[in-house]
Amino acid sequence: MENIRNFSIIAHIDHGKSTLADRMLQLTKVVSDNNLREQTLDTLDIERERGITVKSQTAALPYTAKNGKEYLLNLVDTPGHVDFSYEVSRALASCEAAVLLVDASQGVEAQTVANLYLAMENDLEIVPVINKVDLPSADIDGVLEQIENELGLPAEEVILASGKTGIGIEDILEAIVERVPHPEGNEEEKVSALIFDATYDPYRGAVIHTRMFNGVLKPGDKIKFMFSGETYDIEEVGYFRIQREKRDSLKAGEVGYIIAGIKRVSDIKNGDTITLNSNPCEGPLSGFREVKPVVFSSFYPIASDDYEDLSQAMERLQLNDASLIYEKDTSSALGSGFRCGFLGLLHLEIIQQRLEREFNQSIIVTAPSVRYRFQMSDGSTVYIDNPVEYPDSTFIKQSEELYIRANIVLPAEYLGPIIKLCMERRGIQQNMNYIDKKRVELIFEIPLGEVMFDFYDQLKSMSRGYASFDYEILDYRDSDLVKVDILVSGERVDALSIIVHRSRSESRGRHMCERLKDTIPKQMFKVPIQAAISGKIIARETISAMRKDVLAKCYGGDVSRKRKLLEKQKKGKKRMKMVGNVEIPQEAFLAVLKTK
Ligand code: GDP
Ligand code: MG
């Protein structure tokens, strides 16, 4: 155990964690130089495509230090985006140290600070690193000063590195060996191990990712999950080296996996403690903080008979993403589905894509909503996160919405438009200070519901990608809310209803009608699209009927063209949902959330 170090890499998004992790894999020969793809630890398709890390990954690195001794360094790569801080906190609970990266040209940003706090809450040793020192725009002195003044970390501990050129990587590994304490724990004591993640292998069942705190586990042992009380026989244990690598045992202090033929994934809970059935430990390890979803939305299978399939997919995905929360839900327009809670909008989008790609599900996602609070005239308090459940407005005494404290760091030149954006979203400016000559920190109190709708995208495009955004939840405040319904061909589509502030209802209603007009294809007949509050129409668009000669063309003589057209239609069908007599494409449900 003296020769084990468990650490993670934390940073603001894009400061180079995944690239640095790759270099470490290469230096310790876990992957050979010619097998190294960029961001090797980012294994999900979505991660590779978007260049962001969504899930924490684990790898065991064998390292011979300058003192001549062999070490086992367990690396956990973490996501940087605010939506995934839950993943970060789970990763950190299994470590003794955090390598804190700061981009040499960007300096300290919102998530640098937030992640540092998470690491400090977990009592981790911090190894500060200035990364990307190879950049011509690197401002090493300036960033050193920030690390000392804004983060309170001693400048002499800072290591200069570049994941691109490889400078400083060995220095970081040496610092981990020298400065970081080895894990505590005792192999002789009763087994206690923390479940910090899990995946599903169709052949082997659940694969538990665990950090051993005490004792030893090996194949044949009967383990018990303290939360569910279920027992299983271990089939295999091992380390992560990109792939799974079988071992004889997992010992106190180590990080690795357990396979025990677990097919019923509901038996496993992230944050639960594993012990030996025959000789259990006294109590569970302290788990993770409870997940608090802030964004809610419903998922429906495009074909109603795919509900069971979707149900199984959701269960397996939740195993790998404990921050996903869901329950059964029914919509009159869309049938059976699930009401889900997410940590943020990006989280929602990632879950949707993972369901489609990893689990082959075709789903409709309804407009995300936040949770609203209503004081009713009979004295009761009602919480609602689904516009469908909006109470009868005659019985509402007071409606309330959740505010956040938004922290935006941006280059000073974009200040004007971004303040304007925050004001449009009913934000109240609290503070503004210059971090240095070029960068400003803005503090706004803003209704969370306003941030849901296209705020982050706008912020990014207005600042050409340079503004960073972070927030914390404040409290519920009095508001003047209304429910806007959408009617397609006179029929209310419950899945499209939204709750908004009265002052914004008309523009949002009009915007939704326009977007639907753009995304719903022409039908054989005229289709009116309307937005209404309590039955009163506030906006209207009309999709004109398909022209006859367009149809006539399709029935012309060109066979191959006709076949192509039919194929295209068939493909399109899968992603269409019939609402009344109108076919609404899947994109329409998402399009209403975006500005043009
Ligand atoms: P992460 O979001 O923290 O995981 O960051 P990535 O490792 O995905 O890197 C973000 C971007 O910075 C990518 O385009 C990398 O190629 C680039 N990058 C990472 N490390 C370095 C470095 O040391 N020097 C330079 N110049 N670019 C880097
Ligand atoms: Mg990454």
From TrEMBL:
GTP binds at residues 14-19, 131-134. It is a peripheral membrane protein. Keywords: Cell membrane, Elongation factor, GTP-binding, Hydrolase, Membrane, Nucleotide-binding, Protein biosynthesis. The keyword Magnesium does not apply. It catalyses: GTP + H2O = GDP + phosphate + H(+). PANTHER family: TRANSLATION FACTOR GUF1 HOMOLOG, CHLOROPLASTIC, TRANSLATION FACTOR GUF1-RELATED. This is Elongation factor 4.
